[in-house]
Amino acid sequence: MLTLIGVMGGAVVEDDVLDHAYRIGRMIAEHGWVLLNGGRNAGVMQASARGAHEADGLVVGILPGDTTVGMAPGIDIAIPTGMGDARNAINVLASHVIVALQGGPGTVSEVALALKAGRSVVMLGFPLGVPFSPYYERGQLIDASTAEETVAILESLVHPRERA
Amino acid sequence: MLTLIGVMGGAVVEDDVLDHAYRIGRMIAEHGWVLLNGGRNAGVMQASARGAHEADGLVVGILPGDTTVGMAPGIDIAIPTGMGDARNAINVLASHVIVALQGGPGTVSEVALALKAGRSVVMLGFPLGVPFSPYYERGQLIDASTAEETVAILESLVHPRERA
Amino acid sequence: MLTLIGVMGGAVVEDDVLDHAYRIGRMIAEHGWVLLNGGRNAGVMQASARGAHEADGLVVGILPGDTTVGMAPGIDIAIPTGMGDARNAINVLASHVIVALQGGPGTVSEVALALKAGRSVVMLGFPLGVPFSPYYERGQLIDASTAEETVAILESLVHPRERA
Amino acid sequence: MLTLIGVMGGAVVEDDVLDHAYRIGRMIAEHGWVLLNGGRNAGVMQASARGAHEADGLVVGILPGDTTVGMAPGIDIAIPTGMGDARNAINVLASHVIVALQGGPGTVSEVALALKAGRSVVMLGFPLGVPFSPYYERGQLIDASTAEETVAILESLVHPRERA
């Protein structure tokens, strides 16, 4: 079974966020992991898919619609769900670890569902509020400040025993 | 078509939150609205269902499991979905307006999905962080400080024209 | 908890099927049961909702879209799911017993999912093929020849002990 | 984007059906297609995954549960959905073409949903009844009698232009 890393984030974000998404996508591929995202041709989904694709990685897109219309280039495995935002729950269940970049309520819902499903979430530049404090305290939510630091944390989460 | 008011909140909350949930449930029924919640026999779901039921209201429970095991007493219309937390997306689509009381990541995911789906959300004692600020500014997220104020805001949202 | 009877059938069917759907909807309401259907303003969904509504019954519509656009008149409790045909699984989980009238593959999928979920299905004029034979043999699939006979079978399934 | 072929069929089937599933899985991998199935460690799911895996193919499993417990060996990309049988709708939306072997109501629901979603379905030893006749007539449902013939039909459906 391959290791899937979910990368979540907004469809409309600033350029530095797109750059982070692209580089995280690249590094996910370079580590031999599979990138999973929401599959749309916009924002963090598009940039992370492009990064992983250009590094010859495998990309899974869990699409909200029931077709591949509007899908990001570079998606290898397209999973149209026809379920709209209810597919956010699948995004997190199918990911071993989740990275969250800046986004709107869709991204917040994915972080929240990921925590509820017991997944660790690495946050890069996406501060959340009071309800998330307990998850920071127990180490399930982890802040990173660069794409490189994000991937270093992913390494420690994917291979915890080797590091212990 | 009847007006459904979704009441969201945690399965494990403090007593004053349960009291708010109970009274909001009662007042929803007294206004002739239908209460919709997540249907489980715990916390805000249980208390709001009891309030609406005792005031002879109709209660719809959108359940995460595929049976009615663990359902709150007072649910009239049980909708087992078998979808786990993916049913949170249905909770908000089926609600005309949403009330959110204190809760954990499940409740946060419902607030986030509600905002993304264009629903107004009245918050009673549940402060959220930075990503939600734009929704406060545009009036889609509204803070209330008592159960009575919560319902007064619901009135203005359900019958906007009569109030204009 | 109220008893929900699911009535499934095609969006495009002949007039006698619509007449059956209308009369079954009426009788469901007259028995004090809740009618549940797919909620669209077409065929068996429309006719059964009209029947139940005209007999002052309560009607629940589990809609495939994420809005109430295209909903049948007479639906009291609208549950937009935004899940397309994946909502067929919810239709059957939320129904205590299912009636299936003539339909296409959507209706067949509902009968199949209902059987898998352990629900009894009363068939009125909708012959199915070889894979369904075991379910006829064990009495989980039951053929009826009129609307009245359909409802008589529903009575025996909803109140099995009183009849024993 | 890779070509996903969905292989559906029962969890409890006879040995010749398992042999068909295994060989179809192998040939799907040998054609460079991705095998998609329901992912459980039983019946047609297990056998087809084994076949594709042994031929170095890529296998996607769309699981009904919210974990990978009970997953078939050989699944590379595990997508736990937590949605139970509602995931059958995703199985067909994510498949370019579907193969159906002998099965129970779950398999019937997948064939029905596939037809409704416009997908072609190749049937190997799985006779269906009257409601499916129109789909045979228009060529959307196609009977095959061997694993080899099944894959030959898949070729014609995946590469229609090259064959025209």
What's a quick, concise take on this entry?
The structure is a homotetramer of 164-residue chains. Chain A has 164 residues and is an alpha/beta fold.
Content of β-strand of chain A: 15-25%
How far from one another are the termini of chain A? Answer: 23 Å
Query: In this structure, how is the largest beta sheet of chain A organized?
Result: 7 strands, parallel
Chain pair forming the biggest interface: A-B, 29 and 29 residues
* Number of discrete helical segments of chain A: 7
Give the structural class of chain A: alpha/beta
User: pLDDT under 50 segments of chain A (min length 5)?
Assistant: none
Shape of chain A: globular
How do the strands of the widest beta sheet of chain A line up side by side? Answer: 4-3-2-1-5-6-7
What integer value in Å does the Rg of chain A equal?
14 Å
What are the secondary-structure elements of chain A, in order, as H or E? EHEHEEHEHEHEHH
Percent of residues in helices of chain A: 40-55%
What is the number of beta strands of chain A? Answer: 7
Please supply descriptive tags for the structure shown above.
7 strands, homotetramer, 7 helices, alpha/beta, 164 residues
Could you characterize the architecture of this molecule?
- 4 copies of one chain form a homotetramer.
- The first copy, chain A, has 164 residues and is α/β, with parallel strands linked by helices.
- Helix content of chain A is 41%, strand content 19%.
- Chain A has a 7-stranded parallel beta sheet, with helices on both faces.
- The longest helix of chain A has 16 residues.
- The first copy, chain A, is globular and about 40 Å long.
- Chain A starts with a strand and ends with a helix.
- The mean pLDDT of chain A is 96.
- Chains in contact: A-B, A-C, A-D, B-C, B-D, C-D.
- The interface between A and B is medium-sized, with 29 and 29 residues.
